[in-house]
Design brief:
Layout lengths: L1 H6 L1 H8 L2 H4 L10 H25 L9 H11 L8 H15 L6 H9 L12 H26 L15 H7 L7 H7 L3 H8 L5 H14 L9 H7 L5 H10 L7 H13 L9 H23 L1
Amino acid sequence: MLERFLEQQAVVMATLLDKIVRKGSCDVHTLSESDLLAAEQMVSLLAPLKAATTLMCEEKQPTVSIVAPLRMKLLTHFEYAPDDSPLIKDMKRLMSDDLRERYVDEEPFLLRAAALDPRFKKLPSLGDERRNQTFENLAEEAAQLKEQRNESEAQPEETPPHSPPHCPLSELNENALLFPRNQRYWRTFLATPSALRTQVSRDKTSKELAHDEVRKYRDVASLSLDGKVLDWWRAHQAEFPLLADLAKTYLCIPGTSVPSECVFSTAGDIVRSERSVLSSEHVDQLIFLKKNLSRSTTESIEV
């Protein structure tokens, strides 16, 4: 509202000075120069809030990973400047105090979600200790998720290991005449299951694999701010399998309730008094078409 007023300020002031408008009115209230200056400062202060609200309300990528970066950006914007007027300082203080009280308990979760977003994985607003701790928590959670999936995919009953075929050492020594330099290989091949298990145990654990992925993921270049996060993870899923599974858990969460509220608004537009005999199945179908028809049409055109 203030922005629109400042755009039309010249027209508004000229209209208020017109004799026809002033006729029959002894007092025409107008804004003073100090009021106009305060309005300009307020527009400059509230502009990032408008941009953040518009960004969070869109339905293209309404992911929760953007909440923590936006909150940090707004808190930085609310810091005092030397040329701030008393009015602007009061507004910054009130909005900053209110924003700091929000997402306090959810902050670790929001930071992990932002770290899984290739656009914000650098976490520049955090110190080195908190940044490293956030990625450490991601590695532990990815390792736990892998172990849980391994347990669920395991057989309910363990089958006894097959015993190796019997081969006396005398035959091994005789056959070794054909392969004199490979005696150690054949002894390893015919080793007991316990020896084989000792060799397998040297493989990396889930925690080690998760930490390796996290280190490699942090070294990869960040995605641009207008990039598509889900497409990026689809392209790098084979490179970071553990983190990709964890990203599916976090990045599917919407950042706001706006998309769900839009569905209710769409249902209100469809189910009216003139269409009260619609069945629940038909209502679901119409809502689905309303929310997805334009997207499917665009994809078909691109194909």
